[in-house]
Give the backbone structure.
Amino acid sequence: MSLIRRCIVEKETTANPIWLMRQAGRYLPEFRKIRSQNENFVDLCLNTNLVPEITLQPLKRFNIDAAIIFSDILMIPYGLGQKVNFTKGLGPELGIINQEIISNINKIDFEEKLKPVYDSINKVSNNPILKNKDLIGFVGAPWTLLVYMINRYSPKKNINKVFFKDKKLIDNIIEILVKYIKLHIYNQVKSGASIIQIFDSWAGLLTDKDLEKYIYLPTKEITDYTKTLKIPVICFPRNIKNYKKFVDIVNPDAINIDYNVEPEQILNDIDIPIQGGIHPKMLLTDKITLKKEVLKFKRIFENHPYIFNLGHGVLPETDPDMVEYLIKFVKDN
Ligand code: CP3
């Protein structure tokens, strides 16, 4: 059994599994080389020769316990017929979502558009390098996808309050998203993904009174559905204030924490396996500082099933040597 499964399913505390969010990405020169020759990011995510190659790049360098399929959460809006572009320096840029797009959405077009993603998963899952390791498939949670679909840009810059007033449109899109997120999960699992992670990167934008409707209910439906496929599901409701309540209601198999969470506190609050939490900027410091941080996490989670990971993705300016050191240190100590 893979180390991640031993941790999540068997609740083993000595397995020390590790993988990293954005482990295949811009900090790796071999990724940057491919990226520089492929300007259109969505097309790159649909390239069934390059996606398997990029997905396995970090596994060729490091002793990590999982590959995460190289794709993006915004492939779902793309599959639903919305325009999705990634512009250098600006991040994602989506087309306007209108009634025409919504009424044209159908399962056949969606699966046809995303078939290359599933073909890539199938290809990667058969690679011997993944023997006893996991292949992580993923989706964006309905709330985070809704934010990108309606706001059209990252809410980091600003959020278009006018659009968010249209409650009927929002309810309609959430319902569509739940249905298609499930379908995307089903197809990834059928193609060979052995774990699913649900990213809710903008969970922290909501106040308490809206959590039930936009986060707890839809995410629980998707989490319950994933469990029926008999594979573990990990949730990452980034910056949600109350992880305990989220876990009590949604009940995923494991929870990824962000870097604002106090690890000691979460250990007190939560019984299920925990993943992540190390600040991505720790990889920008030096080996002594990084080592101290890893030892801190090892000590705190000594008797709790814990998967080493970060509290958000690897930063593009990270030195791959530091990633190598982190992984080696987790494994050797
Ligand atoms: O290695 C992996 O983790 C798998 C691949 C992966 C990508 N995106 C590739 C990517 C995963 C799991 C994602 C998830 C994702 N995408 C999230 C959730 C996690 C998070 O970061 O909060 C979100 C919000 C997105 C949307 C997105 N995609 C943004 C905001 C951006 C631009 C800014 C950024 O963070 O890079 C992307 C582009 C993107 N997705 C890149 C990669 C490697 C960079 C593309 C480039 O080379 O320019």
About this structure: The two ends are 21 Å apart (CA to CA). The CA atoms of residues 159 and 316 lie 25 Å apart. The pocket of coproporphyrinogen III is lined by residues 21-26, 35, 41, 68, 70-74, 86, 91-92, 138, 154, 199, 201, 313 (CB under 6 Å).
